[in-house]
């Protein structure tokens, strides 16, 4: 049976989750127990194909969850919170000029006077503009200056167009993940069946970066450092956070003294990032800078510990934007140093996903905004770093609780009888952080004690490099 990594993998070598994961084994008792040694294999339903179907079903469930808002064309300000079906997409379709087919990086004075510049990186802006063109065409190519245009209907269609694209992205993400550890394709089920994928997949454009993270993990497992860097670079042009995966590459290469791989990954990332940003830089350099200035100037926002502290301290707090910026980056720098020391001192080289997850988790813990859909940033790395359903579900339970709390808080459903802020919302932020730290602890335990790592063994790329370095008589 072919594998996503190329070559062949014997079916008998696959690690079945009912044999490997205690939670899955216990749940399997309701349908006959763990898979037996003499169980037959279907000639067509390979693990990867099953995983793709599961991903499609999960994503369909997420689209169904948006149905109440879609039925009302996102016009009911209360419904979007009570039914937790909010999405940024239908609003930004009109507010950022996609409905009028304006290139995100145009410096046309009339356009800039009417529409704000996209506050997202170039990769998302390209996608948002392209899907806007598709939506306009599917709407019958209406006159963009027609005041009678049915903008709510077009905005709803825009969400549908994006959702179709996101579904394909989610399927590709699953395919990549199934090929990271060739004997463990079923690990990708943690992504395919993730509640977080269902509830946040269509909120914003974050899934576009997720596929590059999964692709980078896949490329690294194939011992292709340049391709890994290219995928990280393009992913960084979509969202900033894939850049931090270079830290995982750095640790692994330092341990193995793989200087060529290190240089190839970093150079590939730099060139890919520059090429991906070139259209924006060449057509609107000032508009391209907006993403950077917007994120530097924004204050504490939803989901962050900074917002919780500000609200607890009340009006006039001394926690300003400058302090938040400095404090966040200082904490993240110290966290990265800690991951570096952990990676270098570990009994064996940690896996790419383990290091990537730990680095990104530290970034999110103190980021000044932690939107509900940011859970997608961690999802593929978390599943690959620690494929244990119990711990993944503990982590996602915290995320789902926060997901519900933030919408109900914004909708005024959690307003206290007295006072301005909701203790329940603060508790949701704290619970989310605690659940994330639980998973961090599980991953750190696996790094420090390889026997506690569900995957076990060295990083696939390191293993391949060690084999290649042996004398011919030892291979």
Estimated radius of gyration: 23 Å
What's the rounded overall pLDDT mean? 88
Largest sheet: none
Shape: globular
Measure the end-to-end span: 25 Å
User: Which strand-content bin applies to the residues?
Assistant: under 5%
Share of helical residues? 55-70%
Spans of 5+ residues with little confidence (pLDDT < 50)? 1-10, 465-475
The number of helices is 24
Structural class: mainly alpha
* Oligomeric state of shown chains: single chain
How many DSSP-defined strands? 0
Reading the helices and strands in chain order gives HHHHHHHHHHHHHHHHHHHHHHHH
Number of domains: 1
Main location: membrane
Subcellular location: Cell membrane
Biased composition (Polar residues): 1-15
GO molecular function, one term: hexosyltransferase activity
List the helices and strands and how they pair.
Blueprint: H1 17-20, H2 22-28, H3 47-65, H4 67-71, H5 79-82, H6 89-95, H7 109-114, H8 122-138, H9 151-178, H10 189-192, H11 195-200, H12 207-221, H13 225-238, H14 245-256, H15 259-283, H16 285-288, H17 290-297, H18 305-313, H19 321-345, H20 352-365, H21 375-385, H22 389-410, H23 423-448, H24 460-469
């Amino acid at each position: 049976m072919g594998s996503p990594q190329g070559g062949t993998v014997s079916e008998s070598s696959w690690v079945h989750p009912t044999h490997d994961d205690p939670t899955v084994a216990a749940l399997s008792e309701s349908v006959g127990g763990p898979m037996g040694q003499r169980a037959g294999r279907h000639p067509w339903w390979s693990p990867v194909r099953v995983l793709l179907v599961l991903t499609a079903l999960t994503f369909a469930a997420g689209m169904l969850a948006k149905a109440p808002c879609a039925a009302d064309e996102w016009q009911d300000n209360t419904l979007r919170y009570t039914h937790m079906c909010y999405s940024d997409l239908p609003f930004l379709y009109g507010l950022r000029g996609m409905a009028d087919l304006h290139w995100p990086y145009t410096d046309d004075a009339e356009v800039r006077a009417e529409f704000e510049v996209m506050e997202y990186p170039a990769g998302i802006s390209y996608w948002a503009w392209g899907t806007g063109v598709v939506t306009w065409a599917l709407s019958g190519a209406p006159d963009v200056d027609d005041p009678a245009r049915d903008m709510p209907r077009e905005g709803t269609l825009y969400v549908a167009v994006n959702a179709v694209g996101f579904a394909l992205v989610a399927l590709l993400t699953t395919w990549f993940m199934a090929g990271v550890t060739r004997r463990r394709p079923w690990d990708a089920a943690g992504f395919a069946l993730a509640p977080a994928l269902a509830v946040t997949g269509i909120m914003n454009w974050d899934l576009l970066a997720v596929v590059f993270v999964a692709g980078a993990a896949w490329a690294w497992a194939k011992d292709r450092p340049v391709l890994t860097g290219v995928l990280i670079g393009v992913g960084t042009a979509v969202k900033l956070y894939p850049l931090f995966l270079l830290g995982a590459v750095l640790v692994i290469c330092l341990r193995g003294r793989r200087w060529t791989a290190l240089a190839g990954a970093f150079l590939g990332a730099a060139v890919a990032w520059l090429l991906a940003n070139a259209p924006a830089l060449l057509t609107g350099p000032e508009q391209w800078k907006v993403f950077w200035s917007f994120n530097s100037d924004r204050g504490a926002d939803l989901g962050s510990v900074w917002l919780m502290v500000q609200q607890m301290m009340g009006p006039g707090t001394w926690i300003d934007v400058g302090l938040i910026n400095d404090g966040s980056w200082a904490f993240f720098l110290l966290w990265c140093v800690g991951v570096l020391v952990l990676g270098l001192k570990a009994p064996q080289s940690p896996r790419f996903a383990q290091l990537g997850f730990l680095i990104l988790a530290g970034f999110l813990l103190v980021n000044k905004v932690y939107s509900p859909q940011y859970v997608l940033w961690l999802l593929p790395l978390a599943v690959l770093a620690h494929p244990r359903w119990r711990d993944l579900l503990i982590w996602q339970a915290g995320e789902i609780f926060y997901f519900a709390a933030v919408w109900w808080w914004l909708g005024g459903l959690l307003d206290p009888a007295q006072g301005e802020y909701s203790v329940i919302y603060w508790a949701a932020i704290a619970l989310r952080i605690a659940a994330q730290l639980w998973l961090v602890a599980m991953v750190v335990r696996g790094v420090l004690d390889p026997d506690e790592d569900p995957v076990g063994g060295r990083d696939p790329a390191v293993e391949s490099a060690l084999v290649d370095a042996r004398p011919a008589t030892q291979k």
